[in-house]
Specification:
By secondary structure, this protein is of the alpha+beta class. Helices cover about 55% and strands about 15% of the residues.
């Protein structure tokens, strides 16, 4: 399932719902329909950036090659995964533009 973020401040962004579930739970936002107002954009940027830092810190503390039973294909898949920060980068950019231009971000409408 896809989510389309819309704002007068930037071009539409299309993202997979499954990639956003965890972060939207953290932000206490509904994935199906919602709004990030211009007034809360700055706070949401800070929350997302802190979430990414915490996620990266946890990832650094766990060795992806710790499991001796992991085959080469599984190791290759782990190397090919897109990082959380890369996935959220377009949304962060949209939030920054919405904050600058004092516009809302909508999805599910």
């Amino acid at each position: 399932m896809l989510i389309i973020f819309k704002s007068k401040a930037a071009a539409e962004i299309v993202m997979y719902k499954k990639h956003l579930q965890e972060i939207f739970t953290f932000l206490d936002k509904d994935l199906d329909r919602g709004v990030i107002t211009a007034a809360e954009a700055k706070a949401v940027i800070i929350k997302i950036e802190s979430y990414i830092q915490e996620h990266q810190k946890n990832a650094e503390n766990s060795d992806p090659y710790d499991d001796e039973d992991m085959d080469e294909l599984e190791k290759h898949k782990q190397l090919q995964e897109v990082s959380l920060s890369a996935r959220l980068y377009p949304l962060i950019e949209m939030l920054q533009e919405a904050n600058k231009k004092q516009t809302d971000i909508l999805w599910g409408v």
